[in-house]
Design goal:
This protein is α/β, with parallel strands linked by helices and 205 residues long. It starts with a strand and ends with a strand. It has an 8-stranded mixed barrel with strand order 1-2-3-4-5-6-7-8. It is built from 5 helices and 8 strands.
């Protein structure tokens, strides 16, 4: 399997060429926070599926208290993401994921560790209830170690871990003893994509 993930940052993509290069799966950024869709998501998902590539989606999370509480914000973002992922306007997904990382330069969640954990659990529960698909968590070890309490209890949630070091196995955040998928490069080259692209592999490969 050859798995990539993309967003509008990759620009215009030649999906038949991507398929010819052996890509079997793509995880497409679908949404950001609440009421913000990736501007290339529709085109990318439709054309990737047409080229015979299995499509999945991820949500770039903005965990905060926009609705007044962390729980309300998590439900709002989850409902927005799930509504698009399973609303019929996009090809049905193989996988779903929530992306947990800083929002941008010097911008990050204002939630404390317990609030952040509650937000993540609520988001996962809501998406699962609405779609029947358990979303896996995308992040990297130092970030989750800094944001979650040590006894978070999320270790059974599938983990999509990012680590670009030249290692046989990526370091895992506290509470996980295995990963589901490893994003092992951020500067991959794939035919049909003019920019660098993330490369991923499943743990069982």
């Amino acid at each position: 399997m050859k798995i990539i993930d993309v967003s509008s940052n990759q620009g215009v993509i030649d999906w038949p060429a991507v398929a010819q290069d052996g890509v079997t799966d793509v995880i497409i950024r679908l949404s950001l926070g609440y009421a913000d869709v990736d501007k290339a998501a529709s085109k990318n998902s439709q054309e990737a599926a047409k080229a015979g590539i299995r499509v999945s989606y991820y949500h770039f999370a903005y965990p905060d208290r926009r609705t007044g509480t962390a729980e309300g914000d998590a439900k709002q973002e989850a409902q927005y993401f799930a509504g698009m992922a399973h609303g019929g306007a996009y090809p049905p997904p193989r996988w779903l994921a929530v992306d947990l990382e800083p929002w941008g330069n010097q911008k990050d969640t204002p939630l404390n560790r317990q609030e952040f954990l509650f937000w993540v659990k609520t988001f996962i529960q809501e998406v699962t209830a609405l779609t029947g698909v358990v979303p896996f968590i995308y992040s990297y070890a130092p970030y989750l170690n800094a944001k979650l309490p040590a006894d978070h209890g999320l270790g059974l949630v599938p983990l999509w871990v990012a680590n670009y070091g030249k290692v046989a196995t990526p370091p895992l955040p506290l509470g996980w003893d295995r990963y589901f998928m490893w994003q092992y490069s951020s500067d991959g080259a794939v035919e049909g994509i003019s920019t660098a692209v993330d490369l991923n592999k499943l743990a069982r490969e």
